[in-house]
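Case study B.
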Amino acid sequence: MHTLFAPGLFASAQVRTALAVGGVVAVVSAVVGVLTVVRGQSFAGHALTESAATGGAGMYLAGVNPLVGFVAGAVAGAASMQAVGVRNLRGRDLATGIVLGASIGLAALFLYLDTTVVAATGATQQILFGSIFATAPGTVVLVAGFGAGAVLIVAVVARPLLLSSLDPDIAAARGVPVRLVAAAHMLALALAVGLSSVAVGAILSTALLVGPAAAALRITARLGRAVAIASAVGVGSTWAGVVLSYDSATWFAGGNGIPVSSLIVGVVIVAYLATGTAVRLVPRR
Amino acid sequence: MTNAWVAGTLVAVVAGVVGFFVVLRSSAFAAHAIPNGAFAGAAGAALAGVDTLVGLGVFAALAALTIAALGHRARRDVATALTLVLLLALGDAFLAQTSAYANAVFALLFGQILGVGSGDLPVVAGLAGASVVAAAVLARPLLLASAVPDIAEARGVRLAAMDLAFLLLLALATAVAVPVVGVLLIFSLLIGPPAAARAVVRSPLPAVLLSVALAAVTVWASIAASYLTNWPVGFFVGALSAGVYGAARLAAWAAGRAGRAGRGRAAARACR
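Model:
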């Protein structure tokens, strides 16, 4: 027992915060992620982590709470992607690319000004590679609040969104406001990604958005079940990664350990590959 | 300074040529993921004490192979996203083992175009030449496979092989560009100028030439502006790439409007 759950693991406030934040982020990412994967918008989901970071850097410069900047940056990025053009899958890829390129450029400027004007070196690393262990306990409430907003939006638009993803023409004929529904999904995605990228870092944000959802969609095509499975995979991977990371300090002589993000991503990828193998081995009834 | 101009121009040529295929194949995500994967390789090379360029090249190729392998059974964007996070997580783990090289590795995010020495130029030129030659050799089947996959297949072009060849070409371009303009900026150059060229010119060769020209102008203007303002090159590359695309879209829209108006007037005359 002690080899897995090292002594003092659950007594550590950092670990408790990480488990709470990680759990909330994993569930929100899974809910938003299923529809994101169905709609083929993983790229947008990842690109929004970068525009969130740009917003964070900008607000840091303005002296506003960077948390607000992350969400504002992600929402602005999502709005720009919608504006550049979303008529088809190919157009979306390009629109996302253009917005991503522009926001990377802006981030370069903001980070430069941050470090020269505000004299805060280390901002670069912190924004690009956030850590779940570095999350302030107060962040949990914010993450939960915005996360609930994102989940609520998805719950409202899920049905029409699914229909308009599968066949936009039929959806439009049935009176679904296709563009509005797509914009609502982008808003939910921006809220989820903005918050998760500040809480757990950009890498983990994308991993938890895409990995569990893609694994779940290999097992079932039904939306409700996929969301449930994705949430379970996401939360399980996150908690397993946190525990392993805490243990990993004793794995190497140097005592440097393995970053928690790396371990969680590793577990997510293993889960994804395992579902693929399982689905192939177990014949469908 | 001269070195920066030469190296920047070489990178612009490669980005203009390879980026044309990136835009044609709607592979912007792969163009983002492969350089980021290469970044992880640089971190690994620093840890292992190997030359950075080797790490960049090996991991760029690894990223290309992983995207192709995962892409067999999953949607492309999912395969690309998982490859991206897997390699970045690996890079994060490498960086956590030692802080000695962290600054040198993070410098690769935005590149060091103004720090290019004359000793680096032959390597950049050699790799750039190899990329352009590879692109020229692949051009015909790749164009066919990208634009009309069904016809290409009927003519005996193997689509999966073409896809892998394209991803490896992207990896080669990454190895050229990352030490010069960095992980983040090569992406802007691979998307903005080629997308702008494709918005205004339809046929392939003129589009590639225009794409190269726009990429070169973007790089030159960015270096000059950065020199004058002391602001980072990356900001100008990102802003100009997006700006060039916006301008091209506007031009194409205006031309289309003029064209439609012209046809409308002709039709009206014909009716009279």
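The first helix of chain B runs from residue 2 to 24. The remaining cases will be described in the next quarterly update.
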